[in-house]
Amino acid sequence: MGETSGIELLARVRAVLGTVDLDCACREKLDEALRRFEALEQRRGLRDLIADARAQCEQVAALLDLLRELDEIQVEDTDCGVFEELALLFEAIATAATRGAGDMRRFQALLAAGADREAAGVARASAPVRPIGP
User: Fold this and answer.
1) How far apart are CA 80 and CA 126, in angstroms?
2) Structure pTM?
3) Residue 87: what pLDDT?
C-alpha cells in the first residue's frame, strides 16, 4: 500500500466534511483550519523535495570525485573491472541527476498547485457560505 500525502488525505477529508451539515460559524472555522493544515503540508512537501534534491546533488559530487580515477587510466590498461566500475559510476550519476530533476519538477508543480488553491480560496472566501442540508 502506498503512502498517502497530507494533501491527498486533506482532499479526502474535505470531500467527507463537505457532506456534513454544519452551521456557518463552525464551517468557517473548519475551513480555516483545513486551509492552515494544507499550507503546512505544502511547506513540508516543498522542504522534503529540496532536501532530497540537495542529497542528490551531494551524491553526484561524491561520485564525480570517484570518477577522477579516469584521469589515471591509460589506453594500455586491460583491467576490464575498472571500466565496469566507471560505467556504474556514470549510471549512478545519471540516476541521481534524474531523481534531482524530478524533485525540482514536483517542487514546481506543488508550488503552482498551492498558488492555484490560494487563489481559489480567496474566491471562495468572498462567496457566501451555504451549509449543506440533509
Assistant:
1) 69
2) 0.71
3) 95
